[in-house]
């Protein structure tokens, strides 16, 4: 059969690499065909999500943060410093976390979706015009954020002025100084050319962009057992591949950026410098619980337990 | 399926159906043959909503509103008077000024539809009065507005840059050369046209007359200052500039000049809303149509049947030009870029082409395709705002399309037209 | 074009239906005018907030989105009422009056059918969005609220085209809408 799979990035970005690996494995081991639909070819995130729920698409890759309007609990990924900051801990966290592998599975199932895999896409960095080492350095700096209450709360707590701007106007906005900063995973800073219009990349460690691949639940439940097993297997293969790919990705992106713009300043905040930003997480957690109630609180609790387990190893 | 969709569209179009019907009917057919029923057709409505979702679209009603206020009040007249005092004695001067104004306004505002309205509505009556034929005037306005795709900031180039992983700054700079070349060709054509059709010139104005015209235009000259200063000074985005212009136009016409009564503002807003609606319903229907084309992977199927793998670099460039030109004839340019760029990416890479050159060529095709029938937002906007029949609006288009195609051919033959400035800067 | 002026909000429908129809026309006009002005106000307020007070209005983008949908779908009904939808009329215009009249009846009937079909689809779509419980991130309102104007506007447009067919059936002239006779030269802005 022909299965359709939509994701939120270009085919050469992380989600595209993951999807291509999945396609390769399925097509090599069965008679099924996978058609890939990169960002924008079938609409925006909310559109492809609806299409997957209705079964027009069999698979969809959707970042939980963007799912917030549908599944408020999924915004837990916007809480800063909730995910491990090292690659090893991150790997273990995504493989073993109960929150991700069990709790989210049942949350998505309520929306007609079979959660197949969650994986990290890379550390979120802040790019700005001037370097900063403490929240005071962000005073009066307009940082573009999506219109999400938790992101807004985060950047307020970080000392910046969170500023909404449609994605299409971010590049121009940085060029003309309407905004002086933005946040994105590092590979995206490279591929969307954000480095051309900002001068400093700061690693704050506050987040790692997470995304999730889901299948339409009716479609998945209706498949014969061997197809379900094949899909799970292909997801595992793609996951191993993407974790391996991630290992050098950050360095490769940085290299490319520095090659294009040797003057780009790279700042990695030390553990002490991160402390005041870490403290900001409390405000955001409060806001999250206010928005999601008991179910959000329970999920957050589980996340913290899983984080402890992952970093203890 | 493709054949039935396109034939149904053309038949309904020619019969004189409201333009949304051919698009919707083609989408109906696409959905029906893709899904074998009507169960999934709700998603046409989803795509209607997606089509009119982009935040940048609000520039269209805002600039329509500002332009309408300026035209009904004194601002537009005074600005045009001033320009005429300087160039009225030059043959084709008014046409050349119009083309230049379209290019500059389009470049800054980032919206070609807004340009058609903002520059076209005050200048078209003047050009008609000066003796230019309407077919020439309309085609000039539409095509000159589309030059804006090539001049930064260009949303088309930003999207291309992200999808193809190409430097946006380099694209911006590389677009300027071809953009100016097109403007120069349009200006030359305007002068020739004015000479052949013996468009009368005005008597050369004296310096005191010119000075007086400048003084009368001092308040309206605030518009370019606000737009350019506001955008490059980081006060607002190009989209927001449109709304700020509305505010300034209201202040000028209702407070400073007192040329309009307050109730007029509501009436102008209402007619703005009407024009916006008839254009945006086509944007919405077009989104549903392009969604099903994309979902059915029709471009992939067509391109696979051509067999581009062994083509020479020039062959690839020509194939890209034709594909984007045809795509933009029917579908929104942004969607065309998102769908086609990844399909061509491997061929571009294996042919060893400069992605910046490819980007400029694609942007040029987008500009040509948007001004070319049957479907084009700028054509629709011109029909809605000037209230002329479809055929009349496009009648004067062929010479302009010819010039644009010539530039595309020149670009393929001599890439330095685009890359010269880029290589100078980087 | 005296006819348009004398029948600004007059309806082609008899009695109470006509009254409803003419009030609907007024409501559409109000949505258009007020919608456009609110959009300007909303956008400028965000600029002022950001530039002068370092404080962006997070709801600006969502409010504009609501207004765009409202303007578009209130506008298509209004445009149908005033015969303002964009079409390619070259072949149509070349026909004699009788042929044009019958073609117009056909066009109007098919168009109204399509509009009613879309009305039904949009109600189904809104139902599914409402079921999903999606909310707007900044305004925290249900997303389906944005779309309420869609079926209404489509249905009104469908009714307008149906009435246009009836009007053409009952008259010897060709009518582009219930209020506008064919021909581009006799049109005026639909001001009240
Ligand atoms: Na531009
Ligand atoms: Na076109």
TrEMBL record, chain B:
Annotated compartments: Cell inner membrane
Transmembrane segments: 50-70, 136-160, 172-196, 217-235, 241-260, 272-296, 316-344, 356-386, 398-421
Cross-referenced InterPro entries: DctM, TRAP_DctM
Domain TRAP C4-dicarboxylate transport system permease DctM subunit: 8-416
Keyword Coiled coil in record: no
Assigned keywords, A-Z: Cell inner membrane, Cell membrane, Membrane, Transmembrane, Transmembrane helix, Transport
Protein name: TRAP transporter large permease protein
Function comment: Part of the tripartite ATP-independent periplasmic (TRAP) transport system.
GO CC, alphabetical: plasma membrane
Protein family according to the UniProt entry: Belongs to the TRAP transporter large permease family.
Membrane as UniProt keyword: yes
Subunit structure and binding partners: The complex comprises the extracytoplasmic solute receptor protein and the two transmembrane proteins.
GO molecular-function term, one example from the UniProt record: transmembrane transporter activity
NCBIfam families per UniProt: dctM (TIGR00786)
From TrEMBL, chain C:
GO biological process: C4-dicarboxylate transport
Record-level Gene Ontology MF annotations: transmembrane transporter activity
TM helices/strands, residue ranges: 29-53, 65-81, 102-123, 143-163
InterPro entries named among the record's database cross-references: DctQ, TRAP_DctQ
Residue ranges of domain Tripartite ATP-independent periplasmic transporters DctQ component in the record: 39-167
Pfam families found in the cross-reference section: DctQ
Membrane topology of this protein: Multi-pass membrane protein
Gene Ontology CC annotations of this record: plasma membrane
UniProt keyword annotations, A-Z: Cell inner membrane, Cell membrane, Membrane, Transmembrane, Transmembrane helix, Transport
Subcellular location: Cell inner membrane
Principal cellular location given in the protein's record: membrane
Superkingdom classification of source: Bacteria
Family note: Belongs to the TRAP transporter small permease family.
Role played: Part of the tripartite ATP-independent periplasmic (TRAP) transport system.
Quaternary state and interactors: The complex comprises the extracytoplasmic solute receptor protein and the two transmembrane proteins.
The name this protein goes by in its record: TRAP transporter small permease protein
Organism annotation: Marinobacterium halophilum
């Amino acid at each position: 059969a022909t299965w359709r799979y939509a994701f939120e990035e270009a085919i050469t970005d992380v989600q595209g690499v993951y999807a291509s690996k999945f396609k390769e494995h399925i097509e090599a081991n069965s008679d099924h065909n996978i058609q890939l639909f990169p960002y924008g070819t079938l609409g925006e995130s909310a559109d492809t999500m609806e299409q997957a729920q209705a079964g027009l698409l069999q698979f969809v890759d959707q970042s939980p943060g963007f799912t917030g309007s549908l599944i408020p609990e999924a915004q837990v990924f916007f809480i800063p410093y909730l995910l491990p900051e090292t690659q090893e801990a991150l790997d273990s966290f995504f493989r073993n976390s109960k929150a991700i592998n069990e709790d989210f599975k049942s949350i998505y199932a309520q929306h007609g979706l079979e959660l197949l895999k969650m994986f990290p896409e890379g550390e979120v960095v802040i790019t700005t015009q001037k370097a900063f080492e403490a929240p005071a350095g962000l005073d009066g700096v307009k940082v573009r954020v999506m219109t999400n209450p938790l992101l807004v709360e985060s950047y307020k707590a970080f000392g910046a002025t969170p500023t909404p701007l449609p994605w299409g106007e971010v590049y121009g906005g940085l060029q003309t100084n309407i905004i002086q900063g933005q946040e994105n995973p590092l590979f995206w800073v490279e591929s969307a050319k954000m480095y051309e219009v900002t001068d400093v990349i700061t690693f704050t460690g506050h987040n790692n962009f997470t995304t999730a691949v889901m299948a339409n639940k009716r479609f998945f439940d209706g498949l014969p057992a061997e197809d379900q097993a094949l899909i799970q297997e292909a997801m595992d293969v793609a996951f191993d591949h993407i974790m391996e790919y991630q290992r050098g990705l950050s360095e490769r992106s940085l290299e490319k950026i520095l090659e294009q713009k040797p003057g780009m300043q790279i700042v990695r905040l030390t553990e002490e410098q991160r402390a005041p930003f870490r403290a900001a997480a409390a405000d955001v957690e409060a806001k999250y619980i206010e928005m999601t109630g008991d179910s959000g609180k329970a999920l957050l609790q589980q996340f913290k337990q899983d984080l402890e387990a992952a970093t203890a190893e | 399926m493709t054949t039935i969709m396109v034939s149904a569209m053309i038949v309904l179009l020619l019969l004189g159906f409201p333009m949304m019907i051919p698009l919707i009917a083609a989408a109906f057919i696409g959905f029906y043959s893709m899904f074998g029923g009507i169960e999934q057709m709700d998603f046409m409505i989803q795509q209607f909503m997606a089509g009119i979702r982009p935040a940048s679209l609000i520039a269209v009603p805002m600039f329509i509103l500002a332009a309408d206020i300026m035209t009904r009040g004194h601002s537009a007249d005074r600005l045009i008077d001033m320009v005429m005092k300087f160039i009225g004695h030059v043959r084709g001067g008014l046409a050349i000024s119009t083309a230049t104004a379209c290019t500059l306004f389009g470049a800054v505002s980032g919206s070609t539809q807004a340009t058609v309205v903002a520059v076209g509505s005050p200048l078209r009556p003047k050009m008609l009065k000066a003796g230019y034929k309407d077919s020439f005037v309309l085609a000039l306005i539409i095509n000159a507005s589309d030059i804006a795709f090539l001049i930064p900031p260009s949303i088309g180039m930003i999207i291309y840059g992200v999808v193809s992983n190409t430097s946006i700054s380099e694209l911006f700079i590389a677009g300027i050369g071809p953009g100016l070349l097109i403007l120069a060709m349009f200006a030359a054509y305007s002068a020739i046209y004015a000479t052949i059709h013996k468009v009368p010139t005005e008597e050369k104005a004296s310096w005191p007359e010119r000075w007086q015209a400048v003084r009368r235009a001092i308040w309206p000259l605030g518009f370019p200052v606000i737009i350019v200063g506001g955008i490059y000074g980081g006060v607002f985005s190009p989209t927001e500039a449109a709304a700020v212009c509305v505010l300034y136009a209201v202040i000028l016409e209702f407070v400073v000049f007192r040329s309009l009564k307050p109730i007029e503002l509501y009436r102008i807003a209402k007619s703005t809303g009407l024009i916006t609606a008839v254009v945006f319903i086509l944007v919405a229907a077009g989104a549903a149509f392009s969604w099903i084309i994309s979902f059915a992977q029709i471009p992939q199927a067509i391109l696979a049947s051509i067999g581009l793998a062994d083509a020479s670099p020039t062959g690839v460039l020509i194939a890209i030009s034709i594909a984007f030109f045809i795509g933009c004839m029917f579908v929104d340019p942004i969607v065309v870029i998102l769908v086609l760029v990844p399909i061509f990416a491997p061929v571009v890479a294996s042919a060893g082409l400069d992605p910046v050159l490819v980007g400029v060529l694609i942007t040029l095709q987008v500009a040509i395709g948007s001004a070319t029938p049957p479907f084009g937002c700028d054509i629709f906007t011109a029909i809605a705002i000037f209230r002329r029949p479809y055929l009349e609006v496009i009648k004067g288009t062929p010479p302009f399309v010819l010039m644009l195609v010539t530039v595309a051919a020149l670009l393929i033959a001599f890439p330095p037209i685009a890359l010269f400035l880029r290589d100078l800067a980087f | 074009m005296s006819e348009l002026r004398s029948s600004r909000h007059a309806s082609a429908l008899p009695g109470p239906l006509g009254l409803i129809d003419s009030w609907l026309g007024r409501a559409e006009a109000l949505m258009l005018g007020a919608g456009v002005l609110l959009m300007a106000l909303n956008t400028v307020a965000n600029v002022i907030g950001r530039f002068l007070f370092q404080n962006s209005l997070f709801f600006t983008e969502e409010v504009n989105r609501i207004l765009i949908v409202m303007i578009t779908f209130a506008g298509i009904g209004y445009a149908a009422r005033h015969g303002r939808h964009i079409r390619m009329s070259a072949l149509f215009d070349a026909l004699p009056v009788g042929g044009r009249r019958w073609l117009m009846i056909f066009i109007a009937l098919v168009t109204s059918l399509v509009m009613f079909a879309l009305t039904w689809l949009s109600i189904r779509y809104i139902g599914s969005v409402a079921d999903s419980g999606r909310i707007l991130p900044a305004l925290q309102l249900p997303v389906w609220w944005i779309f309420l104007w869609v079926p209404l506007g489509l249905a009104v447009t469908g009714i307008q085209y149906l009435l246009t067919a009836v009007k053409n059936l009952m008259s010897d002239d060709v009518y582009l809408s219930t209020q506008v006779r064919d021909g581009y030269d006799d049109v005026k802005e639909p001001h009240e």
